[in-house]
Amino acid sequence: xxxxxPTPNEPEKSILKVLFHSxxxxxxxxxxxxxxxxxxxxxxxxxxxxxxxxxNDIKIGGAxxxxxxxxxxxxILSSSDEISRDDRFISEMINVFEHSKHDxxxxxxxxxxxxxRTGNHIFIDPLLSGIExxxxxxxxxxxxxxxxxxSERAVQKLKLFLDHEDEHIRLQTxxxxxxxxxxxxxxxxxxxLYDSQPNIRWDAAISLAKIGDDSxxxxxxxxxxxxxxxxxxxxxxxxxxxxxxxxIRAGVLLNDSIINNLIQELxxxxxxxxxxxxxMEVLKIYxxxxxxxxxxxxxxx
Length: 301
What we know:
The relative contact order is 0.05. This protein has helices at residues 9-48, 51-60, 63-76, 87-99, 105-118, 124-128, 139-148, 155-159, 167-180, 186-191, 198-211, 217-225, 237-251, 257-269, 273-300. Helices cover 70% and strands 0% of the residues. The protein is an all-alpha fold. The protein starts with 8 loop residues before the first helix and ends with a helix. Helix 2 packs parallel to helix 4 and helix 11 runs parallel beside helix 13 (237-251). Among the domains are: 48-149; 216-301, no CATH class.
């Protein structure tokens, strides 16, 4: 026969259960609801905001609002050619950037990237101004922006950062030189092929190839093969694939028979479908451009 008489501990358990729901579960659900409503409202607000709204938020918003607005601005300016050529917007953008020097570093970094993503060379001087005295944490973003602007005017100043003690600054400088593709950077980039950091050596070889120099050919070959990553277990598979793809796209620019043969081999039988696809794409572009070059030269001759 079942005994239905409650034990002395049961009332105590019920009280604890009520207290737990009252002081833990219910407050948690209320807080979660508020976060959801705030996130939804923020999303709707961001979707309707204009670049001028973001600039205004950076100027007068709270600490979190300022860097988030700068981040949103850096995203939309890469696909907004019209606003990035607007004189009023340019003036306000430069003004906000100049006043961000003592703000949260994220504000200045995202503003710099926003300038770079416009492709408008009018932002080169504000970015270069005082870069030597800039906060170390902000320099990589500013250098990256100058690289995106493909600013040959920045080459001489950027050379100063190839020997910087901060590896992130050295890396962004090497990458920027590849984007700028100015032959004046070749001799300085060659020194980066012997940098203590492997990723800087790799990107130096890629940047040199973009400029048309084959000094990093051996590094490019190793990157394309992918075997080099056995010695670097900290580089995950996705990063390995990306590095190989970038090396393939840069390597074909050298028109080197050994590199081209390897790319053909990768296109034919590499186990990674993304690598095969990239190799086939660059070979097709290379062959088509070669045909156009021959046709053009025969016609002019």
